[in-house]
Predict the structure.
Amino acid sequence: MSEKLAIVILNWNGKSWLEKFLPSVVTYSENAEIYVIDNFSDDDSVNFLKTEFPIVKIVINDKNYGFAGGYNEGLKKIDAEYYCLLNSDVEVTENWIEPILNLFKKNPEIAAIQPKILSQSRKNYFEFAGAAGGLIDNLGYPYCRGRIFDDVEEDKGQYEDQVEIFWASGCCLFIRSKDFRDQNGFDERFFAHQEEIDLCWRLINSGRKIYYSGQSKVYHVGGGTLNKQSPQKTFLNIRNNLSMMLKNLPFPNVIWVLFFRMVLDGAAAFYFAYKNGLSHLWAVLRGHFGFYAQVPGTLKLRQKNQIKKYYQTEWLIFKHFLGSKKA
């Protein structure tokens, strides 16, 4: 295998995103090969790429496999030492690649790295999906340095470090191809949402490390493919988060965590119904039923070893909503 970086963008009917943000990727990625995996689009994405960006290599999937399966399928055809899995709604910046590759080369124990992720619409604020590196609390709620639930921090240079984290955002995920393949890629049952957290958790359980590099910076639109208020996103987040915990948490922790989550998700269902409509209450219920349906398959996917600690062991949800823990 050649020692190279492949920047890989998964596309599904996203011509407008490619038109807007692909130029920044081409401009600032001179030493990388750029690929677009087309997830069976029915818009003009592929013809647009062939006409306007002949330098970009195209891999065409034979159906829409979702985010997780789409990458798994397309990456089978891409040979590189490192992958950068990049959302189509991300604007990259000058010198965004070198700090990441240098960090990989310095530490062979690192499997995956994310850059600083800022909002494309408010460029001095962190973006929801990743911010300054992902963490998880002791009830399995994902959050980030620079973002807790929906509260985001202004970027004032407080996260310029290179530090170990729990999960790296899938909107801009650098990963060694060997590590991706050793874990059999993303869990395709997730379809989309939190598949990168599950992958990072599996990597940590296998003895690998996940890092953040504040020396690399990108801007993310967020919600480019599925609106943050979508009931389908609520469903996927609930189902996938529960399955992820059953797969990766050690016993007996997983028992009491899932018990508490049943109670808290019930309360959340009524909160979502009040804030966003009854469709979100139903989405939470569907998420739980979807999780129960996956239990036999999830148990088969549990690894031999599960880590005994989190990177941030605190009752984040209580601290946040009681007012003592804000972004």
